[in-house]
Each structure stands twice: as structure tokens, then as C-alpha cells.
Amino acid sequence: MKLDYDKKCFACGPENPLGLQLKFWFETGSDGGEEYVTRFTPQPHHQGYVGVTHGGILSTVLDEVMARLAWEKQLNAITAKMEIRLRKPVPVGEMVTARGRIVRDRGRSIHTEAELYLSNGEVAAEATAVLVKVA
How many domains does the chain have? Predict the structure, then answer.
């Protein structure tokens, strides 16, 4: 199976008017390793409880920073398993930063991890995922 991209992805597609339209870039992490990064400012239509970003939206951002990194590295893989820990509420209107990295690329599986940071630098959420190569 070849994974294709048509710019309509809910998370990163610039042609999806209802999507998050995330943009990504590479940065050097605090440990000197390569990280894939995006920033996102949740809007009122992303909330769960009043003024608080829905956890499913945060999960989507974390999934995308990990899975799209594999895509960027030309690894034809999809998320097979993801574990998320929501640590702090993310206020609507506050820009957050997600940072993802590949921890291990072994055979058919790619192990990744990511964090979502509040503007004050606190970790609001963290995730690990196993992606499976499909071709």
C-alpha cells in the first residue's frame, strides 16, 4: 500500500478548510537530536469544556507530529498504537508547541515520542506511538 497525500489531511492539509492546517519544521532538541516541530493555537471551536481545548484535538496534534515525521523521512508508515498522557489543561487561545522524534526504527515498526508544551514551557501532554511500515 502506498500512502498518498492530497493536501486535505485534517491535521496538516492546507486545502482542508475545517482542518488544523499545521505547519512543520525541524529543530535541534535540548539533547542535540533532531526534532520535528509544530505550533498550534486552539480556537473556541476546538474546546471541550468551556475555555479548555478538547483532548482529542491535542491527541491529533501529537499523532501528527510523530506520524508526519515518518512521512517526511520517506517512511511509508501509519500509527498502529498510541498512548497519550494529558498532564495539564490547554487553554483555548494559548499557543502550544509540539515536538516529536523517532526513538527507534526497527524492521516494520517505528517507535516515536512527542510532547506538547504550553507557552510557559510546561508539558501539557506527552505521547508515545508505534508506527507500522505498510510498504
Answer: 1
Q: How far apart are CA 35 and CA 21, in angstroms?
A: 19
CB 73 within 8 A of CB 102: yes
CATH number at residue 125: 3.10.129.10
In angstroms, the CA 86 to CA 7 distance is 29
For 66-90, give the DSSP string: HHHHHHHTT--EEEEEEEEEE-S--
Q: Count of residues for the chain?
A: 135
Interval 48-93: pLDDT, tens: 999 999 999 999 999 999 999 999 999 999 999 999 999 999 999 9
